[in-house]
Protein backbone atom coordinates (compact mmCIF):
# COMPACT_ATOMS: atom_id res chain seq x y z
CA UNK A 1 0.00 0.00 0.00
CA UNK A 2 1.41 3.40 -0.97
CA UNK A 3 2.26 5.95 1.68
CA UNK A 4 0.61 8.69 -0.32
CA UNK A 5 -2.95 7.41 -0.20
CA UNK A 6 -5.48 10.15 0.28
CA UNK A 7 -7.95 10.13 3.12
CA UNK A 8 -10.76 9.52 0.60
CA UNK A 9 -9.02 6.45 -0.83
CA UNK A 10 -8.55 5.02 2.63
CA UNK A 11 -12.17 5.78 3.49
CA UNK A 12 -13.51 3.91 0.49
CA UNK A 13 -11.32 0.86 1.22
CA UNK A 14 -12.37 0.97 4.83
CA UNK A 15 -16.06 1.31 4.08
CA UNK A 16 -17.08 -2.17 5.18
CA UNK A 17 -15.08 -1.86 8.37
CA UNK A 18 -16.51 1.50 9.42
CA UNK A 19 -18.86 0.30 12.10
CA UNK A 20 -18.17 2.60 15.05
CA UNK A 21 -21.46 2.99 16.86
CA UNK A 22 -22.49 3.58 20.42
CA UNK A 23 -24.13 0.22 20.90
CA UNK A 24 -21.71 -1.95 18.92
CA UNK A 25 -18.24 -2.11 20.48
CA UNK A 26 -15.54 -3.48 18.18
CA UNK A 27 -14.21 -6.91 19.12
CA UNK A 28 -10.53 -7.86 18.63
CA UNK A 29 -9.97 -10.63 16.07
CA UNK A 30 -6.57 -11.71 17.40
CA UNK A 31 -4.82 -10.43 14.25
CA UNK A 32 -1.88 -9.04 16.29
CA UNK A 33 -1.64 -11.92 18.78
CA UNK A 34 1.25 -13.52 16.86
CA UNK A 35 3.50 -10.58 17.76
CA UNK A 36 5.25 -10.69 21.14
CA UNK A 37 3.69 -8.18 23.52
CA UNK A 38 3.88 -7.26 27.19
CA UNK A 39 1.07 -5.70 29.19
CA UNK A 40 2.85 -3.17 31.38
CA UNK A 41 0.31 -2.96 34.22
CA UNK A 42 -2.99 -4.76 34.89
CA UNK A 43 -5.09 -1.84 33.64
CA UNK A 44 -3.06 0.25 31.19
CA UNK A 45 -0.24 0.02 28.67
CA UNK A 46 1.16 -2.56 26.26
CA UNK A 47 4.47 -2.80 24.46
CA UNK A 48 5.25 -4.65 21.23
CA UNK A 49 9.05 -5.00 21.44
CA UNK A 50 9.65 -6.41 17.94
CA UNK A 51 7.12 -4.75 15.64
CA UNK A 52 7.86 -2.05 13.07
CA UNK A 53 4.71 -0.02 12.36
CA UNK A 54 5.88 0.31 8.75
CA UNK A 55 5.62 -3.49 8.40
CA UNK A 56 1.99 -3.31 9.52
CA UNK A 57 1.33 -0.52 7.00
CA UNK A 58 2.92 -2.56 4.18
CA UNK A 59 1.30 -5.90 5.06
CA UNK A 60 -1.17 -7.49 2.65
CA UNK A 61 -3.79 -7.38 5.39
CA UNK A 62 -2.72 -3.91 6.57
CA UNK A 63 -6.28 -2.72 7.17
CA UNK A 64 -7.10 -5.75 9.31
CA UNK A 65 -3.92 -5.28 11.39
CA UNK A 66 -4.40 -1.55 11.89
CA UNK A 67 -8.07 -1.93 12.78
CA UNK A 68 -6.96 -4.48 15.39
CA UNK A 69 -4.32 -2.02 16.63
CA UNK A 70 -7.03 0.66 17.00
CA UNK A 71 -9.07 -1.74 19.16
CA UNK A 72 -6.06 -2.71 21.30
CA UNK A 73 -5.03 0.93 21.80
CA UNK A 74 -8.62 1.70 22.78
CA UNK A 75 -8.66 -1.17 25.31
CA UNK A 76 -5.13 -0.73 26.74
CA UNK A 77 -5.18 3.13 26.50
CA UNK A 78 -1.58 3.39 25.26
CA UNK A 79 0.67 1.10 23.21
CA UNK A 80 4.45 1.45 22.74
CA UNK A 81 6.76 0.54 19.85
CA UNK A 82 10.56 0.83 20.17
CA UNK A 83 13.03 2.34 17.72
CA UNK A 84 10.66 2.93 14.81
CA UNK A 85 11.58 3.80 11.22
CA UNK A 86 8.15 5.33 10.46
CA UNK A 87 8.41 8.71 8.70
CA UNK A 88 6.08 11.68 8.95
CA UNK A 89 3.90 10.78 5.95
CA UNK A 90 3.52 7.20 7.22
CA UNK A 91 2.70 8.54 10.69
CA UNK A 92 -0.10 10.63 9.16
CA UNK A 93 -1.33 7.65 7.14
CA UNK A 94 -1.41 5.53 10.29
CA UNK A 95 -3.26 8.26 12.18
CA UNK A 96 -5.93 8.40 9.49
CA UNK A 97 -6.20 4.63 9.24
CA UNK A 98 -6.59 4.10 13.00
CA UNK A 99 -9.57 6.46 13.03
CA UNK A 100 -11.17 5.44 9.76
CA UNK A 101 -10.82 1.68 10.25
CA UNK A 102 -12.36 1.94 13.71
CA UNK A 103 -15.27 3.94 12.31
CA UNK A 104 -14.61 7.63 12.92
CA UNK A 105 -17.10 9.97 11.22
CA UNK A 106 -16.35 10.93 7.62
CA UNK A 107 -16.19 14.60 8.63
CA UNK A 108 -13.13 14.01 10.84
CA UNK A 109 -9.51 14.07 9.70
CA UNK A 110 -6.18 14.99 11.26
CA UNK A 111 -6.13 17.88 13.68
CA UNK A 112 -4.41 21.17 12.91
CA UNK A 113 -3.35 22.76 16.17
CA UNK A 114 -4.60 26.35 16.62
CA UNK A 115 -1.01 27.36 17.42
CA UNK A 116 0.20 25.87 14.10
CA UNK A 117 -1.25 28.15 11.39
CA UNK A 118 -0.76 26.63 7.89
CA UNK A 119 1.07 29.80 6.85
CA UNK A 120 3.77 29.16 9.46
CA UNK A 121 3.94 25.40 10.15
CA UNK A 122 5.79 23.29 7.53
CA UNK A 123 3.08 20.63 7.90
CA UNK A 124 0.14 21.78 10.04
CA UNK A 125 -1.06 18.17 10.48
CA UNK A 126 2.14 17.48 12.42
CA UNK A 127 2.30 19.18 15.81
CA UNK A 128 5.91 19.46 16.95
CA UNK A 129 6.24 18.61 20.64
CA UNK A 130 9.25 20.52 21.87
CA UNK A 131 10.81 21.64 25.12
CA UNK A 132 11.61 24.90 23.35
CA UNK A 133 7.99 26.03 23.81
CA UNK A 134 7.71 28.47 26.65
CA UNK A 135 5.26 26.53 28.80
CA UNK A 136 5.74 28.63 31.90
CA UNK A 137 4.77 31.74 30.02
CA UNK A 138 1.65 30.05 28.63
CA UNK A 139 0.45 29.15 32.10
CA UNK A 140 1.26 32.52 33.59
CA UNK A 141 -0.86 34.11 30.92
CA UNK A 142 -3.90 32.43 32.41
CA UNK A 143 -2.76 32.91 35.99
CA UNK A 144 -2.01 29.22 36.52
CA UNK A 145 1.15 29.24 38.58
CA UNK A 146 0.99 25.79 40.18
CA UNK A 147 4.47 24.28 40.43
CA UNK A 148 3.21 20.74 41.08
CA UNK A 149 4.46 18.26 38.48
CA UNK A 150 0.91 16.88 38.35
CA UNK A 151 -0.48 20.19 37.02
CA UNK A 152 -0.20 19.09 33.39
CA UNK A 153 -2.33 15.92 33.38
CA UNK A 154 -4.60 16.28 30.35
CA UNK A 155 -6.27 14.75 27.33
CA UNK A 156 -5.26 16.38 24.03
CA UNK A 157 -7.32 19.21 22.51
CA UNK A 158 -10.55 18.75 24.50
CA UNK A 159 -11.25 22.44 23.82
CA UNK A 160 -12.36 21.39 20.32
CA UNK A 161 -16.07 20.54 19.75
CA UNK A 162 -14.84 17.41 17.94
CA UNK A 163 -11.80 16.26 19.91
CA UNK A 164 -9.30 13.49 19.25
CA UNK A 165 -9.71 9.72 19.12
CA UNK A 166 -6.03 8.70 18.62
CA UNK A 167 -2.62 10.34 18.97
CA UNK A 168 0.73 9.07 17.69
CA UNK A 169 3.92 10.57 19.11
CA UNK A 170 7.43 9.77 17.87
CA UNK A 171 10.20 11.27 19.99
CA UNK A 172 13.45 11.75 18.06
CA UNK A 173 15.45 14.06 20.35
CA UNK A 174 15.88 13.33 24.03
CA UNK A 175 17.67 14.70 27.05
CA UNK A 176 20.44 12.50 28.41
CA UNK A 177 18.08 11.38 31.14
CA UNK A 178 14.52 12.28 32.05
CA UNK A 179 11.51 13.48 30.06
CA UNK A 180 9.38 10.40 30.72
CA UNK A 181 5.68 10.53 29.84
CA UNK A 182 2.94 9.13 32.07
CA UNK A 183 -0.50 7.98 30.91
CA UNK A 184 -3.56 7.24 33.08
CA UNK A 185 -6.68 5.21 32.32
CA UNK A 186 -9.95 7.13 32.13
CA UNK A 187 -11.79 3.78 32.33
CA UNK A 188 -10.18 2.89 35.64
CA UNK A 189 -10.66 6.47 36.91
CA UNK A 190 -14.40 5.99 36.29
CA UNK A 191 -14.28 2.58 37.95
CA UNK A 192 -12.80 4.12 41.13
CA UNK A 193 -16.03 6.09 41.71
CA UNK A 194 -18.65 4.73 44.08
CA UNK A 195 -21.75 3.66 42.15
CA UNK A 196 -23.78 6.45 43.81
CA UNK A 197 -21.22 9.16 42.90
CA UNK A 198 -20.82 7.80 39.37
CA UNK A 199 -24.60 7.98 38.88
CA UNK A 200 -24.56 11.60 40.08
CA UNK A 201 -21.87 12.51 37.52
CA UNK A 202 -23.31 10.70 34.51
CA UNK A 203 -25.07 13.09 32.17
CA UNK A 204 -23.38 16.23 33.59
CA UNK A 205 -21.43 18.39 31.16
CA UNK A 206 -18.36 20.58 31.48
CA UNK A 207 -16.83 23.56 29.73
CA UNK A 208 -13.38 22.91 28.23
CA UNK A 209 -11.32 25.95 27.24
CA UNK A 210 -7.89 26.75 25.79
CA UNK A 211 -8.13 30.50 26.21
CA UNK A 212 -4.48 30.36 27.24
CA UNK A 213 -3.48 29.54 23.64
CA UNK A 214 -5.22 32.69 22.41
CA UNK A 215 -3.58 34.81 25.12
CA UNK A 216 -0.22 33.23 24.32
CA UNK A 217 -0.65 33.77 20.57
CA UNK A 218 -1.63 37.40 21.14
CA UNK A 219 1.33 37.94 23.48
CA UNK A 220 3.75 36.38 21.00
CA UNK A 221 2.28 38.27 18.07
CA UNK A 222 1.03 35.40 15.90
CA UNK A 223 -2.55 34.51 15.06
CA UNK A 224 -4.60 31.54 16.18
CA UNK A 225 -5.44 29.25 13.26
CA UNK A 226 -9.20 29.71 12.98
CA UNK A 227 -9.74 26.51 11.05
CA UNK A 228 -11.32 24.33 10.14
CA UNK A 229 -8.93 22.33 12.30
CA UNK A 230 -9.52 18.80 11.02
CA UNK A 231 -13.31 18.92 11.28
CA UNK A 232 -15.82 21.53 10.00
CA UNK A 233 -17.01 22.08 13.60
CA UNK A 234 -13.53 22.95 14.90
CA UNK A 235 -13.42 26.60 13.84
CA UNK A 236 -12.95 30.07 15.30
CA UNK A 237 -10.69 31.53 17.94
CA UNK A 238 -12.90 30.86 20.96
CA UNK A 239 -11.23 27.47 21.59
CA UNK A 240 -13.89 26.13 23.90
CA UNK A 241 -16.39 23.28 23.91
CA UNK A 242 -18.89 21.54 26.16
CA UNK A 243 -18.55 17.78 26.69
CA UNK A 244 -20.09 15.12 28.94
CA UNK A 245 -17.90 14.45 31.99
CA UNK A 246 -18.46 10.71 31.67
CA UNK A 247 -18.03 9.59 28.08
CA UNK A 248 -18.59 6.32 26.23
CA UNK A 249 -15.66 5.14 24.10
CA UNK A 250 -17.34 4.02 20.86
CA UNK A 251 -14.62 1.47 20.03
CA UNK A 252 -14.73 -0.43 23.34
CA UNK A 253 -18.20 0.65 24.48
CA UNK A 254 -16.72 1.41 27.94
CA UNK A 255 -17.39 4.44 30.15
CA UNK A 256 -14.50 6.82 30.80
CA UNK A 257 -13.95 9.89 32.93
CA UNK A 258 -13.57 12.87 30.59
CA UNK A 259 -12.40 15.90 32.55
CA UNK A 260 -8.81 17.08 32.75
CA UNK A 261 -6.72 19.54 34.72
CA UNK A 262 -5.59 21.70 31.84
CA UNK A 263 -8.72 22.29 29.77
CA UNK A 264 -11.80 21.49 31.93
CA UNK A 265 -12.96 24.68 33.65
CA UNK A 266 -16.47 24.22 34.96
CA UNK A 267 -19.18 21.58 35.42
CA UNK A 268 -22.15 23.48 34.09
CA UNK A 269 -25.02 21.93 36.06
CA UNK A 270 -23.35 22.63 39.45
CA UNK A 271 -22.57 25.80 41.39
CA UNK A 272 -19.03 27.11 40.94
CA UNK A 273 -18.09 25.82 44.41
CA UNK A 274 -19.56 22.37 43.75
CA UNK A 275 -17.85 22.29 40.35
CA UNK A 276 -14.44 23.33 41.77
CA UNK A 277 -14.64 20.70 44.51
CA UNK A 278 -15.81 17.98 42.12
CA UNK A 279 -13.18 18.70 39.47
CA UNK A 280 -10.45 18.84 42.11
CA UNK A 281 -11.49 15.40 43.36
CA UNK A 282 -11.80 13.89 39.88
CA UNK A 283 -8.36 15.25 38.96
CA UNK A 284 -6.96 13.70 42.15
CA UNK A 285 -8.30 10.31 41.08
CA UNK A 286 -6.16 10.57 37.94
CA UNK A 287 -3.03 12.13 39.48
CA UNK A 288 -2.93 10.38 42.87
CA UNK A 289 -3.66 6.78 41.84
CA UNK A 290 -0.36 5.52 40.47
CA UNK A 291 -1.99 2.10 40.04
CA UNK A 292 -4.00 3.39 37.07
CA UNK A 293 -0.95 4.99 35.43
CA UNK A 294 1.92 3.77 33.30
CA UNK A 295 5.25 5.61 32.96
CA UNK A 296 7.33 5.28 29.80
CA UNK A 297 11.05 5.96 29.52
CA UNK A 298 11.69 7.02 25.94
CA UNK A 299 14.56 5.99 23.75
CA UNK A 300 15.30 7.68 20.45
CA UNK A 301 12.62 7.04 17.81
CA UNK A 302 10.21 5.23 20.13
CA UNK A 303 6.53 5.67 19.28
CA UNK A 304 3.54 5.84 21.61
CA UNK A 305 -0.03 5.54 20.33
CA UNK A 306 -2.82 6.41 22.74
CA UNK A 307 -6.58 6.80 22.86
CA UNK A 308 -7.53 10.39 23.62
CA UNK A 309 -11.12 9.24 24.17
CA UNK A 310 -10.31 7.54 27.46
CA UNK A 311 -6.74 8.38 28.51
CA UNK A 312 -4.88 11.16 30.30
CA UNK A 313 -1.17 11.91 30.01
CA UNK A 314 1.53 14.26 31.24
CA UNK A 315 5.17 14.93 30.52
CA UNK A 316 7.87 14.94 33.22
CA UNK A 317 9.80 18.21 33.04
CA UNK A 318 12.89 17.06 34.91
CA UNK A 319 15.48 17.67 32.19
CA UNK A 320 16.44 21.32 32.64
CA UNK A 321 17.31 23.15 29.43
CA UNK A 322 18.05 20.06 27.32
CA UNK A 323 16.15 19.57 24.09
CA UNK A 324 13.29 17.07 23.97
CA UNK A 325 11.46 17.00 20.66
CA UNK A 326 9.14 14.84 18.61
CA UNK A 327 6.31 14.78 16.09
CA UNK A 328 2.69 14.20 17.05
CA UNK A 329 -0.22 13.30 14.80
CA UNK A 330 -3.70 13.68 16.28
CA UNK A 331 -6.70 12.07 14.61
CA UNK A 332 -10.16 13.45 15.33
CA UNK A 333 -13.02 11.22 16.38
CA UNK A 334 -16.67 11.96 17.03
CA UNK A 335 -18.43 14.48 19.23
CA UNK A 336 -18.19 12.96 22.72
CA UNK A 337 -21.39 11.37 24.00
CA UNK A 338 -22.55 9.38 27.01
CA UNK A 339 -24.56 6.23 26.33
CA UNK A 340 -26.41 5.28 29.54
CA UNK A 341 -26.50 1.66 28.34
CA UNK A 342 -22.71 1.42 28.10
CA UNK A 343 -20.69 -0.50 30.67
CA UNK A 344 -17.63 0.28 32.72
CA UNK A 345 -14.43 -1.58 31.80
CA UNK A 346 -14.54 -3.68 34.94
CA UNK A 347 -18.20 -4.50 34.33
CA UNK A 348 -17.57 -5.46 30.69
CA UNK A 349 -14.59 -7.67 31.62
CA UNK A 350 -16.45 -9.37 34.48
CA UNK A 351 -14.09 -7.93 37.10
CA UNK A 352 -15.17 -6.98 40.62
CA UNK A 353 -16.27 -3.39 41.13
CA UNK A 354 -13.57 -1.36 42.90
CA UNK A 355 -16.19 -0.32 45.47
CA UNK A 356 -16.64 -3.99 46.49
CA UNK A 357 -12.96 -4.90 46.78
FE1 LIG B 1 -0.71 16.06 25.21
Tell me the structural class: alpha+beta
Please tell me the total number of domains: 1
Rg, rounded, reads: 19 Å
Average pLDDT taken over every residue: 91
**Given the structure, what is the number of helices?**
10
Share in helix: 25-40%
What is the CATH C level class, in words? Alpha Beta
GO molecular function, one term: metal ion binding
Protein name: Taurine catabolism dioxygenase
Domain TauD/TfdA-like: 39-322
Region (Disordered): 105-125
Describe the structure.
26% of the residues lie in helices and 20% in strands. The model is unreliable at 1-19 (pLDDT under 50). With 357 residues, the protein is of the alpha+beta class. It has one domain: Clavaminate synthase-like (Double-stranded beta-helix, 4-Layer Sandwich), CATH 3.60.130. The chain has ten helices and 15 strands. Fe (ii) ion binds next to loops.
Amino acid sequence: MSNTQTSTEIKSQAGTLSVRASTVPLVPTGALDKYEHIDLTPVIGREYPNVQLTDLLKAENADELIRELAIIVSQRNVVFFRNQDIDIEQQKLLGNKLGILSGRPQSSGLHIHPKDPPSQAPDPEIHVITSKANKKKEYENEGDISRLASREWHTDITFEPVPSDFAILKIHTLPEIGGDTLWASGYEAYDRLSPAFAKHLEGLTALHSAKKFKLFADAEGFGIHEGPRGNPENVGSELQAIHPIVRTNPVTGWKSLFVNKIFTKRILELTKDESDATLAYLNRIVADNHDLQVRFRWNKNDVAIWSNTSTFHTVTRDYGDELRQGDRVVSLGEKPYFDPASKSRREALGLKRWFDL
